[in-house]
Amino acid sequence: MQAVNFTVNSVNLQNRVKTGSDRFTTKKSVTRFIPTGKVSVFGSRLRSSQTDGDVKPVKSESKSTGSVLPYVGVASLGAILFGYHLGVVNGALEYLAKDLGIAENAVLQGWIVSTLLAGATVGSFTGGSLADQFGRTKTFLLDAIPLTVGAFLCATATNVQTMIIGRLLAGIGIGISSAIVPLYISEISPTEIRGTLGSINQLFICVGILAALVAGLPLAGNPLWWRTMFAIGVIPSVLLALGMAFSPESPRWLVQQKKIVEAEKAIKTLYGEGKVAEVMADLSASGQGSEEQDAGWFDLFSKRYFKVVSVGAALFLFQQLAGINAVVYYSTSVFRTAGVASDVAASALVGAANVFGTMIASSLMDKQGRKSLLMTSFSGMAVSMLLLSLSFTWKVLAPYSGPLAVIGTVLYVLSFSLGAGPVPALLLPEIFASRIRAKAVALSLGMHWISNFVIGLYFLSVVTKFGISKVYLGFASICLLAVMYIAGNVVETKGRSLEDIERELSPAV
């Protein structure tokens, strides 16, 4: 993914695998050990000694002269669209329902909302295969088609059937985006700032949701404004396609496809000419240029990959089963109990907490590490859920139940945005081996969309049966289980190259 700085401390790569806190030790210099007297598959860029069998380090002192930021920015348009399409229907639903003649039909309104999630589930699985077959940038170009057409159909719909088709296409588009945005950003970002750039994905999802809220402000004065709200989604879709037409392909994918010249060209664009030999050596050492074919779906469940794939799926399951969407869905009622009557004010406060927490997480991702933020996040969510549960049941707290419920909700969303929100999408492309990365990310995100859909479908029924206090207590328990699971199964990836991580977690057979 990047012009990364790592030192190989031994000729034998197997000696790199360490235990305890030493397993991820890194150094500032870059040293590559290449068997000398042999020709590298990447040509003469790699120096060798004259004595056969000796080992000489290839050490790069050059600084990066390229920039990945413009391309990360282009990819982030996909994240903005993700958040925008999720949030746009919340304000527009009441008005479009009247305009389309379904104001009294809750079932059809539910279809308009949930069809997006169904499409996203399909898109998330599709995105992995497309990214492996056509590459990351071409998949973005393909993704712009359902995103643009879906937004256009929603904006111009004159009947509910057209609206549902538009939402389905938009859902497929954001499902593909949810898989390839973190994948592409992870594969092109320099190691030392990969955490910060990777968390931008979640930040821009939050920005997209807030943009949808802001876009809905004129609705009160103009009931037909809902069409403009959906039409706005066309703009970033077109910009995404235009930007990706000029963005470099992932060097990792190019090396997998044995397109060495194109990979060197992409590295030069991203990091500068001085980094080409260094990055290509790193990719070579990882075995990405080996004869292994791209993994099939069943390979994800093989002995070699199953453990790491199960960690990825588990993180997204914990993320959703910990109750984030349920809290957001129920926040309006909670805020009204506290005397906040405005839906917009309630949503804005929750959205602001989400954006603020994600900004903090971005600054800490490469300092505190992914695992640390995950454990802190789920611990804070557990405490917040417990506070929410007690605010509904303890008579001692009855006089303060409203304010406590508000505090608990905001603290929960803030805690979520510190780790549980941004880290899984960042961590997954890091821990998955290159040959399974796209499909494994897609599978994990499929778990995300399926659990999201199920929670949205059954949450109110469960609340009706058990009561909100017991449901929140259940969410607190899941958060504590997540902390224990993360402590025992998640590795820290801060400061490590993708190739270094792959050699440890998914060694070649």
Explain what you see.
The protein has 19 helices and two strands. It is mostly helical. It has three domains: 13-61 and 272-291, no CATH class; 67-247, Up-down Bundle (Growth Hormone, Chain: A), CATH 1.20.1250; 293-509, MFS general substrate transporter like domains (Growth Hormone, Chain: A, Up-down Bundle), CATH 1.20.1250. Helix 12 (324-337) packs antiparallel against helix 15 (401-420) and helix 14 runs antiparallel to helix 18 (468-489). It has helices at residues 69-99, 106-134, 136-156, 160-188, 194-215, 225-232, 234-245, 251-256, 260-271, 276-285, 306-321, 324-337, 343-364, 370-393, 401-420, 423-431, 437-466, 468-489, 498-505, and strands spanning 31-35, 55-59. The longest helix is centred in the first third of the chain and has 31 residues, at 69-99. The relative contact order is 0.14. It is 68% helix and 2% strand. Strands 1-2 form a two-stranded antiparallel ribbon.
